Amino acid sequence: MSRKVVIFCDKFFDRLVVLVSLLFFLICAYAMYDAAMVYYNANDTSVLKFKPDLTNPEVLKEISKNAIAWITVDDTKIDYPVMQGKDNKEYLNKDPFGKYTLSGSIFLDARNNRDFSDRYSLLYGHHMEYNTMFGSLDLYKKREFFDTHRTGRLITVGGTSYDIRFFATAMVQATDPLVFHPMNATPEALIDKLAKTAMIFEPPESEENLKLIALSTCQSAENIDRMVLFGEMKEIS
After folding, report:
1. Of 22, 38, 76, 178, which residue is least crowded by CB atoms under 10 Å?
2. Alpha helices in 119-211 (DSSP H)
3. Domain ranges of the chain
4. Smallest Cα–Cα separation from 229: which of 144, 119, 151?
5. How far apart are CA 89 and CA 235, in angstroms?
6. Phi/psi at 100 (nearest 5 deg)?
């Protein structure tokens, strides 16, 4: 092999190493940027962090025509607008402003009535780190946390407010024919099921005219297990 060929091979190899190193650096940089943006979107400090007057259409326009309510779980990071899309995929990776984001939005099942007039309403949210979005639901696996964080509130676009008192924590598969089919489920059937299968269960305070809400999040991308927190809704007059 001639000296010129050796020199050419050495230079080619050096350039290849530099190119591969640069590519690796760019991939790492993008991964860090993407992770930072996911965290930023899940911790939005813009209008999403200030409960708007949902009876004011001008304020609602700052979010989206698909914003239907606001949910707060006291003393947790769950404090977000609630969206509803044309199906249950629309807001998986879209923020309330309609922009793409891996953290998605909190959204109501597309089969539920957007005014929360159903006797059972089902909300979804991603399981994010640092207890953002519905990542806080994992905390409810512990009895001590459950006992001291049982209250919340939901305000609809029409101005109707509900107090929420959580009564059950359950691990449920996404294929469950009762929990994940809100139009087939009744509060009575859900309570009967949860009394037998929930990780933590305290009977709801009311026995008549029950209206329930469920907050659901995944556990991992590799299985169909869902962490679900169930609450009783009482309209504030």
Report:
1. 22
2. 143-148, 187-197
3. 1-42, 52-235
4. 151
5. 29
6. -70, 135
